[in-house]
Amino acid sequence: MGEPLVVGVLYVLPGFDNELVVRRLGGCPRPVELVVAPYEESHALRTAKGQGAPEAELRALTPPMSDEARVMFTRAEVVLTLDVPLDLRQVAPNLRWIQALGAGIAQFNPRRLREDGIILTTAAGVTAVPIAEFVMGRILEVWKHTRRLEQLQ
Description:
Elements: E1 5-9, H1 18-24, E2 32-36, H2 43-50, H3 55-61, H4 67-75, E3 78-81, H5 88-91, E4 97-100, H6 110-115, E5 119-121, H7 128-143, H8 146-152
Parallel strand pairs: 1-2, 1-3, 3-4, 4-5
């Protein structure tokens, strides 16, 4: 069956179900090993990366990496994340694909990733339907005065 495809999940939301994700990836020609190892950078570091801040400034803001995350990075071919460490190629020699968990990718360096042979994809559009539903609900709430009606009950 071959070596497993190691997928690192670096940003975990409440209710994340490892087993469900692995089942949904069941059509993969290789067995999938999902490794959860949180790695999260501060908003200040993401912003500094996006603005091309000097490396010394970025390193000063970089959080320590857990041993769990370090091991995951050495094995992973795919990561689902908001953030990646500065020395990505050295930390993650097998990495081939980053799936960003948001639409914004300013904290990544797409040109550098391409040079390193790493594909970067985003989650742009994933929330379009829920946001549209929310907006329609709010419009109806205001138009029909549902909060006022609730107070009058």
